[in-house]
Amino acid sequence: MTIRNVPDETYKGLQEMARANHRSLQEQVRLMLTEEVELRNPSVCEQAAAYRAHLSGRNPAKTVIEDLREDRSR
């Protein structure tokens, strides 16, 4: 991958970050890109919260009871 027209200040800042973290410039940029992409993916907690919201308002016990009654009435 090649990135063109990176402003000088940005490039210098990336170099400083890499040096401070004892990484090469390439390693630093790769890590930053990877972390940015991972931030876009929902965390396990966010996925669980979405699933709970999806299930809210449902009464699973009522459904089980209705299913049992239906089976017994056959």
Automatic annotation (TrEMBL):
One of its GO terms (biological process) is regulation of DNA-templated transcription. Pfam families: FitA-like_RHH. Residues 1-37 form the Antitoxin FitA-like ribbon-helix-helix domain. This is Antitoxin FitA-like ribbon-helix-helix domain-containing protein.
